[in-house]
Amino acid sequence: MPPFPAQSNDFTTFTPARNYIGGEWKSPATSRSTQDVINPRFGKPMSTVAMSGAEDVDAATKAGAAAFREWRNWPIRERAHIMYKLRELMVRNIDELSWLINHENGKTFPEAKAEVEKGIECVEYGCSLPNLAAGNQLEVSRGVACEVVYEPLGVVAGITPFNFPLMVPLWMLPQALVGGNSFILKPSERVPLSSLRLAEMLADAGLPKGVFNVVQGGREVVEAICDHPLIKAVGFVGSTKVAKLVYGRSSVQGKRALCLGGAKNHLVVVPDADAELTAENVVASFVGCAGQRCMAASVLLAVGKVDHILDRVKSRAAAITPGKDLGPVTTDAARNRIKGYIDDAEKRGAKIILDGRRADAVPGGYWVGPTIIDNCTLDMPAAHEEIFGPVLSVVRVGTIEQAIEIENSNPYGNASSVYTSSGDIARRIMGSVEAGMCGVNIGVPVPREPFGFGGWNDSCFGHGNITGWDGYRFWTRQRKITSKWAVQKDQTWMS
């Protein structure tokens, strides 16, 4: 697999995305179609991806099962050493990985590099697991000890989205691999190229063949992963609609499933908020990564007289240059859908105070500029549906209680933030909102390792978080061992 050669935004092609099974690059088992991998900055193909099927999932599962028999017996410290080496390779090749994400996803180079750096942080957590995963032992009765050890499940799988092609797989891989499992990755068919470099780096780090496998494709591959009897657990990140389907289908088969869905995140802004901090932070939240992240600001709940803050938000957002400070959205269909939300809000009486519908940084690319829709009402789709673009919907409310009611009436529970200088207001709102990840004067409240990533309600199906210690527990199972070696004269109920 050659390195990705790009060192700028200039259009660059790359090798076709194939499957990686048993340590070898393979085409689908039966003749199938390919799909173009589009560079969204230019709106033209930079590669192709093989669309695989159930036979390929079966081949990857068998390769993983064969490798698992030896891999599970490696001491946990030796498994973690693979993560140390992977980290070294990622640091050494950080610019290459960043340019690859920039080209296949559309992020700006600094945003892509930040994604790689977060992925490295996830790998570093995997390096620490031998110190964290020590089982507990306790003498529970005279001469009787109980011990807990964490055992791998077997072959497990991750289904990951288009918006973070490298980071989200690394939410899952360190815990799953250090836990002793074999892993099958099904990347988004829109951004399959980062998975190629990840497979190469894991091989260079010394991971045995078959422990990590990649199956490219779409719905047929997802369904085969859910149905395969030898796959013991499934992690998923994507839309709520698909998260529900994957969770239900996997659970029916008796698998563990943890499926993260969509979001409609609310930022509550009150009059005492620091205007400069709030403006900078809100814009970074709704514009960053072209708004294509589940933690992005979506609705600003403006409490009372906050026009002086909104003016600064608008001024800061208007200074952003598409193509330089802002990347494209990933597909033409996404661009049209996002513009449709803006058009609809305008027809319903909302005021477009910053309009990004005519952004066109690079001909042929899928551009939407920063957009702010003021005076939204809750019946407007822009106010209650996930837009997934650089669009901020402003809903005016009179009280903090109204803001909390709006936040809690939406079906999602991913993230919520408040901008205030008052500790009392911050505590009231943080203690009342229905969201799993909350921020005070932080618009993208992503928990850093070792804290876990995961929302509530329709943003998460399954128990726990997908990163951190919860992630390790998800990919392992507890074995409880009760032992007695000493012979004592007296008796207890365990004698």
Considering DSSP H and I runs of 4 or more, what fraction of the residues is helical? 25-40%
Q: What is the tally of beta strands? A: 22
Q: Count the helices. How many?
A: 15
Overall pLDDT metric:
96
Strand content: 15-25%
Q: Which strand order do you get reading across the main beta sheet?
A: 14-15-16-13-12-18-19
Give the class from helix and strand content and strand pairing: alpha/beta
Gap between N and C termini, in Å? 61 Å
- What are the segments in which pLDDT stays under 50 over at least 5 consecutive residues? none
Rg from Cα: 24 Å
**Any idea what the shape is?**
globular
What does the main sheet amount to? 7 strands, mixed
Written description of the protein model:
With 495 residues, this protein is of the alpha/beta class. It contains 15 helices and 22 strands. It is globular and about 80 Å long. The mean pLDDT is 96.
Descriptive tags:
single chain; 495 residues; alpha/beta; 7-stranded mixed beta sheet; 15 helices; globular
Topology:
Layout (H helix, E strand, L loop, with lengths): L18 E3 L2 E3 L7 E6 L4 E7 L3 H18 L4 H17 L1 H12 L3 H24 L4 E5 L2 E9 L2 E5 L7 H12 L3 E5 L6 H12 L7 E3 L4 H9 L3 E7 L2 H13 L3 E5 L4 E5 L5 H13 L9 E7 L3 H12 L13 H16 L3 E4 L16 E4 L6 H4 L6 E7 L2 H10 L2 E2 L1 E5 L3 H8 L6 E4 L15 E2 L2 E2 L6 H7 L1 E9 L11
